[in-house]
Amino acid sequence: MLFSSQSRINRAFKQAVILPFDDTSKFIIFSDCHRGDNSFADEFSNNKNIYNHALKYYYKNNFTYCELGDGDELWENRKFDTIFRAHENIYQLLKRFHLEHRLHMIWGNHDMVYSDPVYVKKHLNAYFDRKLNRDMPLFPFIRYHEAIRLRHTTSAQELFLVHGHQAEFMNYVGWRFHRFLVRILWRPLQVIGIADPTSPAKNYKETIKVERRFKRWIMANTNQFTMIGHTHRPRFPEVGEPALFNAGSCVHPRSITGMEIENGAITLIKWQIATTDDGVLQIVRIPLEGPQKLNEFK
Fold it and tell me: What is the pTM of this model?
């Protein structure tokens, strides 16, 4: 059954947790943060200040945070604790979202260990505070999902959110083998600038394959609104095209991208560092596409 990309996507859709929303709901959707250990191989570290600023903006403005997988880089890094120590300020902010029931997490291929609730409970429920010399709550009772379906309470329109590696056999079924290659081979090479050619984020042909397989599934399911990450390539279709969206990633050079849902509309946004006329550096939010009403993608 899992040998077909269409069957894997179907299964993720059928087993997705359903979350109700309406036109007053506000969501920020990021994907592929790949939070690492703050070493030279940690691609997230270049954008961590941008991401932190954006996260504070969305927290203050009452957005619900959704992450479409590969949030934590657990192929290159063996332990979450290493990542937590490198970016503790980020996790403390995400914790505030979680405690207010505004945090929804999806697992991808690079953090597929989170598909195991036992692993999640062991590593994410609490952390050891070295100052207080005791365990402190981090994400108590958090659940990771393979997919989420946002269902509009009035129109019943559903937005299918999933990481996207379901379209690839080796990144879904054979992820442990790929993880082995990344840890042993590609991580040391990444430090000197050589990218993993098997990753759709680094290989254009693989990106096209992923998108083509999702488009085929979307059209076979009455143009089901679908949002993925995985390829790191932002995508915002025109009305009338297959409704395949991509939130992009938080490891673009000097910028991050994501999707905002607000007032019943969707917007592709970018956060980046810009310079004012008097030479002051600031972090700015730039809409790239939209806002477009969700009900036009039916």
Answer: 0.91
Nearest to 139 by CA among 101, 183, 187: 101
Q: ∠ CA(234), CA(80), CA(261), 5° rounding?
A: 30
pLDDT tens by residue, 19-59: 999 999 999 999 999 999 998 889 999 999 999 999 999 99
Torsion angle, CA of 238/242/243/248, rounded to 10 degrees?
-80
Q: What would you report as the CA-atom Rg of the chain, rounded to the nearest whole angstrom? A: 18
- How far apart (Å, rounded) are the C-alpha atoms in residues 129 and 29? 29
| Rounded Cα–Cα distance for residues 93 and 63 (Å) | 13
Degrees, nearest 5: CA angle 95-28-226: 120
Three-state DSSP state, 185? helix
Q: Which of 172, 153, 141, 191 is nearest to 37 (CA)?
A: 191
The distance of Cα 169 from the centroid of its chain, to the nearest Å, equals 20
Q: How many helices (H) and strands (E) does the chain have?
A: 9, 14
Q: Distance (Å, rounded) from C-alpha 211 to C-alpha 227?
A: 11
Contacts of 206 (CB under 8 A, 6+ apart): 168, 198, 199, 200, 231
DSSP state of 237: P
The span from the CA of 108 to the CA of 114, in Å, is 9
